[in-house]
């Protein structure tokens, strides 16, 4: 008599393949051989009576049946985890967590969150990748190479991904206190962005949005310098050169101690938010859920 019950191991393998969109990467992640993973999927497809994947050359795609089954598979794994947690003493978390962060958050925001996480879950291995190249980061998140991405952009900028811990992030004009521009009673926007102006990489959200708003006002953004590192820009400003447009949290301590100064400009407003992103299609395992819980409690 055939087994009447679906093997959750096979369901977990199916979800992992969807996360990576690749049988080999899923097998490596699970610690199985590729042959074992292929056998598990064939077994699951036999149980369901439908193919779950189309294979075109070296690429795989979910069939319509696979797309329909995916949310039920994720719910099944969640229910299994909830059942385990409802009885007995919960085991100490083990596993791996892979996070990518914009450079400014990696040094200013993420360390405190990670310290709390490591204190509570010392057996979890954490990898933090630092990158300001959003398009590449989003691709890796979609492919399952990252668990979470911490970034800053407009609200609801990525509707295809799940987001949490959204927080408004003011972006301000800043310069060295010796800048003669600060002595002017009125500080026209045109003067500010042409006063040895330094911008972050224009692929970064706030620089991109600033340029769009300037274009609407008929002002061309022609920076004297474009730099991929927020910390590098801050060091140039601290040396007494130029003005820039940066997230307030990155320069807060320098403004407080008087080594940098804010330039109040009335006729421009860029609304930015920081948030964590993760794939909507993947199962949030206990290691990931623990991270989400800590981040949400940090708000």
From TrEMBL:
Respond yes or no to whether keyword DNA-binding is given for this record: yes
Q: Which family does it belong to?
A: Belongs to the LysR transcriptional regulatory family.
Name the source organism.
Hornefia butyriciproducens
Pfam families xrefs? HTH_1, LysR_substrate
One GO term in the molecular function aspect is:
transcription cis-regulatory region binding
Name this protein carries in UniProt: LysR family transcriptional regulator
Q: Which InterPro entries match?
A: LysR_HTH_N (IPR000847), LysR_subst-bd (IPR005119), WH-like_DNA-bd_sf (IPR036388), WH_DNA-bd_sf (IPR036390)
Q: Which UniProt keywords apply?
A: DNA-binding, Transcription, Transcription regulation
Record carries keyword DNA-binding: yes
| Annotated HTH lysR-type domain residues | 6-63
